[in-house]
Amino acid sequence: MLEIKEIYKTFNAGTVNEKRALNGLTLTLKEGDFCTVIGGNGAGKSTMLNTVAGTYPVDAGSILIGGTDVTHLPEYKRAKFIGRVFQDPMLGTAPTMWIEENLALAARRGQSRGLKWGISKAEREKYKELLHGLDLGLEDRLTSKVGLLSGGQRQALTLLMASLQKPRLLLLDEHTAALDPKTAAKVLELSDRIVEQDHLTTLMVTHNMKDAIVHGNRLIMMYDGRVVIDVSGEEKKKLTVPQLLELFGKVSGSDEANDKLLLS
At residue 115, does pLDDT exceed 60? Predict the structure, then answer.
């Protein structure tokens, strides 16, 4: 479902601030894979997601989603393939619009727009049913402005919106990092449910090594703009955080890398 082939990305090339963020990155995800991504600050995790989404153009290499080469497609043209949830709960929604209006926008993504009545009664009932599944009481607040919601409520709504059209690829960019532990656990539980229910191919970037082990069927660790660890199945389930750190130290050949991973 996702093929990243020999991707290179350098920022501020030719200046004193030159930084190679992706260094021949290669990764393939099968349909239905739920892959967690970890690594220290500057490892290239978010840059990878941004190149897949089309936010950053790549210097070299190619990206295919569902067999379609999207390497040179602009971000808005990739939107029909991709759902994305950001770290900041303020992103991904229109804060001055109602909950039902945000859901309607998500439901109509990629479709031609006409002048017919905005939201039908049938759609409104569907939105109520979907929101009821979040167990946050939002089904009774369809006409509340999204900007009035808590961070956790907003992130749960964003997750619902991102998966509403069952995208080929779901990108979760540290989507629980700004939430308190209890709310983060709730959003992760919801993420698991939506991914499994809709069989979504998913990339989830996280700084929490325990979450990376517990969630998904595959785990990759990035260092210096490339994948250095790739585990899945039973091997992943048996991993512990100390084992992961030890493995990372061996692969990277640096204690400093372990420290960066822990501090991040």
Answer: no
Of the candidates 152, 118, 122, the one whose C-alpha atom is nearest the C-alpha of residue 138 is 152
Residue linked to tokens 């093929």:
3
CA 200/CA 32 separation, integer angstroms: 5
From CA 76, how far away is CA 55, in angstroms rounded?
Answer: 9
Q: What is the CATH number of domain 2-81+167-263?
A: 3.40.50.300
Residue 89 banded pLDDT, cuts 50, 70, 90: confident
Q: In this predicted structure, which of 37-51, 109-123, 149-163, 242-256 has the lowest mean pLDDT?
A: 109-123
If we measure between CA atoms, which residue out of 202, 153, 207 comes closest to residue 177?
Answer: 207
Tell me the C-alpha distance between 204 and 134, whole Å. Answer: 20
pTM: 0.88
Asked if 37 and 2 count as a contact pair (C-beta separation under 8 A), the reply is no
pLDDT per residue as tens digits for the range 247-262 = 888 877 766 666 666 6
- Of 162, 154, 3, 1, which Cα lies nearest the Cα of 80? 162
Q: What is the pLDDT of residue 92?
A: 83
CA distance 264 to 260: 6
87 within 8 A of 175, measured Cβ to Cβ: yes
Instruction: Domain ranges for the chain, please list them.
Output: 2-81+167-263
- Residues 207/37, Cβ–Cβ less than 8 Å: no
- Residue 19, CA distances (Å) to 16, 49, 134, 144, 155 in order: 9, 17, 41, 44, 31
